[in-house]
Sequence to fold (401 residues):
Amino acid sequence: MAGLPRFIGLRYSLGGGGSQLMSFLSRLSMAGLVLGIAMLVTVLSVMNGFDREMRQRILALVPHITMQPWGGQGDWQALRDSVLTHDAVRAAAPFLQGNALLVKGAEAEPVQFFGIDAERERDVSRLEEYADFSRFEGRQLVLGHALALRLGVVEGDSLSVAVPQPGQNGVRFYRFEIVATLDSGTELDQQLVLMPLIEAEHLLPGQRRSLRLALNDVFAAPRVAWELSMVHGRNYRLRDWSQQFGNMYHAIQMSRKLVVIMLLAVVAVAVFNIVSTLVLVVNDKRADIAILRSQGASRGDVLGVFMIYGAVIGGVGTLLGAVLGVLLSLAIGDLVAGAERLFNLQLLRSDVYPISYLPSAIRAVDVMFVSAIAYAMTIVASLYPAWRASRLLPAETLRQH
Fold:
């Protein structure tokens, strides 16, 4: 009877030799497991996508560390040469930062603008991948796409830049042309204002140049900023990206953990449905079990029958759930974008979320982890119904039937 448990277990799990109700319940339990695993794989892929975009897009557009002078005199080039001696610093570029009011007709937006050297900026960020800096000279601006939409301007338009005058009760107005708009799909599109460094120096006379630093390891920024502050902290204020975006990054990581716990609970519920189904199947097959025992099948054989039954349901459900989850993960971005176009709405806005689209990144290790956990839960859950079936007494069971 070595192959008997396998033969009967497969026959039961494939719907043979049983009532339509039992077959329906088996498929229903399997469907719950499939949906639970598919949801978990899809959500994990979306959270991985947010993490990837945070690393590769947002943190590639912003400086990893900024060094701004407290005041007084200083040589930014000497400072640049000094910080580049740090092993963790990959590149450094000068910039100026100021406050202004952008005015176009009846529309006005308070902003922080940055004066940058377009040539050196290539070393510390990937801004040029999203905007054309080839004609970036003179009184020209690069605006974030969403900011340009709020002002109602496009490339080639001009607008007024009102800059407050220190020590004076008033502002000065300057006319700038919009040479490009930056559409990165991130929250930077809501606020970014760039101008040539030379023009920023005209608007901010007497202000010393600051430095934007790029690191070899972006997640080493807090440590590197602290180390540099021990040397330059008296004359420069150092800020790293985690002070602006750190809460958002940690929120993504925390959300990922909470979602995993929540959806594992959904998978657990689906597994308990399999337990309920197996208990019902055992009750439905009491006569069959009694006959098998009376024909010489051992308790271990009966245990094996229903363990194989649960293993097949769990295995097929896990496989189908993983495949469905991967397919949904591949299509989720296009599905959301299509729904936005169809219903003329925007589910993700860069002024609320860090990006304006739904990313997805499938990791094989996540799919395997979810599948392994779900299948292990199914096997463990099958133990009780299978044990209960093996403890049935043949004579008493046949007498009741």
Notes: The longest strand covers residues 89-104. The chain has a mean pLDDT of 82. Strands lie at 65-69, 89-104, 107-116, 140-144, 158-164, 171-182, 193-196, 210-215, 236-240. The CA atoms of residues 65 and 240 lie 4 Å apart.
